[in-house]
Batch of 4 targets.
Target 1
Amino acid sequence: MASSTGEAGTLTSASSLSARVPFTFPEVDGEQLKSDVPPIPPPCNHVNCEGCWKRYPQSLFPNWSPSQVERSGILDVIEKYNRSIPCTIHRVDIDDRGYFTDPGKYELTEQAKDASWEFLIQSHRPVNTRVRSLFVENMSGPVLQKLGAYYNIEPFFFSSSLSWTPSRFQEEVQPGRGDRKGCALVLDLLAVHLIRNVEGNTLISYHTSGREATSAPFLQERMHYAGQSVYWQNIFQRSPDPTFVLLIFIWVAICAWDEALEALYARICWLETYALDTSDIFITRELHIIRAHYFQFPSLLEDVRKAVVFILDTPNPAMDSLPQEEKQFSRTLLEKECRNLLSEIHRLEMSRRMQDQRLKNALNLVFSTTSINNSKRMRKLTEAAVRDSTVMKQIAYLTMTFLPSSFVAAIFGMNVGEISPGTNETLPHYFAIAAVLTLLTV
């Protein structure tokens, strides 16, 4: 989700849920077509430009018309940011010995915009610094413009990051000097812009302000902690290539994936046990929700894989200035580390498939258990119906046996003149009253 250009070139990578393409043709601006301003302005030394950052991105990229800046979302960040919250830049430095240090964080407030620009354009890093990593928290409009103007960042990096649009490309590569490289991973946004240059390497990590997003302090802490390990110390001591810093970011994402799948696996095991012990059909709702997320995971893991392949296929042009033996050693080491990452991604995909199969098995188990329980209930109902039918038959047999004799006894017990002489009632009266009562009853 990034793009950029600069003196030494640009390399940017991104991954996202959306399928938007960052190079969509904007609406044609008639005024821009009539303009005599060159499409590529001369480089700015940031000394007597009177704050060229205030006109970014048009100051460096005249083709970005005001309407395009507005549609890309950059204008909203420039004008509608929260001025009461300072932007904090957390830093990690890597020196030429491969040591990771924390030079401290730097806050950029609304009241000190010009002072922060002077701080940015003046070099404050030690001379032996190989890579300086900047983790931007609560990025404001002025900070976006300052970083973009000073590091000559293509606006596509910010527009793609703001809209979570995937993009990977490299431009203006200068052999023996350097380029720029970026990477972004989503669902949680990870947008990284790496400037690889023989004069100094700089990494910029953009962090969205979402509540559940990975924060700048968290990622800065992970980067600093990784630098304390013997494994990464050996890599940075043996190779001067700053590209290995990007691999740390990818490993952070891989570890997050591993933890997420582990938590989901524990939940799936509990759901399987619960499905065995109960016939609650409502458990299928949670199973379907989890499986819906699993359907999304393959595309996200594929984005991670593409990011690793992109890093592998875009070597650092600045490495051309090194001796062939040292250059080949760094390249071999980078290929080995990328293969390790690709192997981990494949393992995560296999784990995802296995868990998806267990989810499917749990769903089938719930449906099978429910069907078996329904069959048992139907069997009990059938047995009860059979018992009721037997009782009804017995009642019918008893009725058929005693009804004739009871009828005869009732007839002979009637107090009518035909049977008992001297009474006033007759059989016609009996049948008339019985017929009327029968009709009323029916």
Target 2
Amino acid sequence: MHDHHENTKRRRSAPLLWGSGAIAAALLILGVSGTLSTWTTALVHNDVNTTSAQGAVALSESSGGATCVDTATTTTNEATCSTINKYGGSVLDPDGVNSATATVQMTNTGTATGDLTLDADACSTSGGATTSTSNLCDYVQVTVTCDGTVKYGPATLSAFAAAGPATIGTLTPSAATSCTLVVTLPSGSPAGVSGQTALQQLNWTLTKV
């Protein structure tokens, strides 16, 4: 009789043990899955963290729709255009065709507004008579006109170098200006400059404002 009673108790308590085990397992799963882990772990997320680069100017030079250089593609924001001869490269005759013209477009390819200037390095010559005391740089004159307004000249190439930067205008991002340079060898220039070639570097500078 006693054994029967004990067996009955064990049979009645077995479902309770199984139930308790199932609950414990469920709690363990919930803890692992994160439902209860919020009790022991706190998190703060920062989802909007940004930084930006300051706006900069950049300058491109083109002619006839073809871009020669764009400083925005360089690491120094500086470039040299060697394929557009702003003085035309023509042979000038003071008694005939005595002028040459070249037109370029300068575009602000940056993200900031800038002031554009143009200046010239010292003019040098090569060729001609070795005994000549005349210098072609002192006779060839240059005039710079941008968007229909004369920005510099007419003045000799030597004077252009000494004058310092000529103000071209202000360029907002993506804005462009069309500049025409005309060089002229005036009639009456001395024969001593015949056969000479003048060379002068021009510098376009866009400065952020």
Target 3
Amino acid sequence: MKPTASHLVKSQTKASSGIAGFDNITGGGLPLGRTTLLVGGPGSGKTIFALQFLVHGAQDCDEPGIFVAFEETSPRIIANAESFGWKLDELQEKSLYFMDAQPSPDLVQSGDFDLGGMLAALESQIKEMGARRILFDALDILLLLLPDQTAIRREIYRLHEWLSVHEMTGLITLKADGDQTSSISQQPFGFMHFMVDCAVILSHNVEFGVSQRSLRVQKYRGSSFDENESPFLIDWSKGEGTTLVCTSLLDEMSDQVESSSQLQISALVDTWIHLSYLVQAGERNRGLSIVKSRGMAHSNQVRELILSDAGVTLADTYTAGGEVLMGTLRWEKERAERVVHEAAEAAAKLKRVKLEAEEADLEVRLKSLQAELSAKQIEKDLLVRDTLSHEGEISESRTRIQELRGADGETMAGENP
């Protein structure tokens, strides 16, 4: 069944983690103002994941954060994170606070204790710096000091209620027993999975002889999410400003783009370049296409990859209709299309010459007719002029004759028409 997008928790009600792949899986990040549980075995990346969540909030979201450490000391955490380029020393001045809450090895417990004192101190710090995010790293270290399960549950519910009252986006990390994350709900703090609004399970296994970290969102109240396990990478190269290129050999050569390799490296990267072979007409040609490239436009064309003495080149984009061809077949089709195009151009040129000749002939004939018309008009004007002149001369001659013969006025009037 294809999952449908949920409208119960919209993206604006989520706190971005700063981890692009995780934000895609959850539709925006962790639930804002709610509690998230992060569980994993040793080396699975719990502390780094949580620290990046705090750093991203402080640097990019204007949400100061508090790191409550129950296992490692804050100087050691800061030293371990130097390679990621987060500049924690600068953030500590106003937007990121570290609280060391590690139990002393020499601690002698006398009577019951609770989290009330620590929460009161945190409340004062929250008001002072306006914190919106808080991390309780390795909370199980402290909870194991409680005498029984009843006390553990009581303090966990106290913490959960405190986070809800202060509308803090809380993140709690716990250890899993080994890599048995599938049975996490059966472990000592398994009931927390039912209490929190979001639960994320991290694992660190060896697949095909290669160390691989993976992540799965177990639950997310009020929001749709990707329920499948996804690989993730703790990447030092971005902090160093280094461009990392990974290669992966596919088991089968096919003209179809596989969703991923066995190690699922494709799910980790920002840009996925797919190389393939295309066998046509007895030739094996190489093809290159861009499957994805986050944050930038890219071509959807399959381009021919040419390896020659000059190096690696890409053939021009195939613009002919029909199936994309490579090698000799492409050359033959382009040559045939070029011949057809040249023949069409020659035919058009010949027709253009004929039309120009006919146009010139018509222009000559038109000029001749215009000259003949002008001559006829002149001849007509002369004829009219001669006729009028002749009639005038006849009238004058008759009048003169009458005068010479002494004709009276009545006779002259009677003779004139």
Target 4
Amino acid sequence: MGGGEGALTLRILKFNVRSFGAGMMGAVNGMRPSGEVDSSCMQSREVWTGTTYALAATMLHEVLAHESEVEAGGKEADEGVKELWSAAFETAHGLYVTGWKEAGYWFQTPEGWELSGNYRSLGYMRPLSIWAMQWALQDKLNSLPTVDDAAWSRYKAHKNGSKHLEFVRL
């Protein structure tokens, strides 16, 4: 992606996600240009779960906006979009690794955590921003082909002995 929000979010991925906790903790709030975590205040050295999910959702929105412009003929396809798509899930994956797989917070997800493992505010509500990722993808999911009732009935009637590909009713 040449510029704009896509390039900015990839820069955040490089500095605030990949350069913190081996890329497996989420996006740290404060990172200095030197690549060192900003320790000037408590919040800058934390990963906020809600903010990290919002960052991942922003990346997905950028990908889908770019795809819409390409389909409308307003833009050329860009290979950087694939990187941004992967970046969104890489960013969110760090929260899974730290929050669920390693720390086992499950439904008591805290507001944030530090590299040391210290956390703050268990049972925080901002992690619900994971649904922003779902919202970003919803139009794409809704555009997938579905099976109408007549086609489903024909499929069920001819299922036995049929060599056709199976499909699932959504």
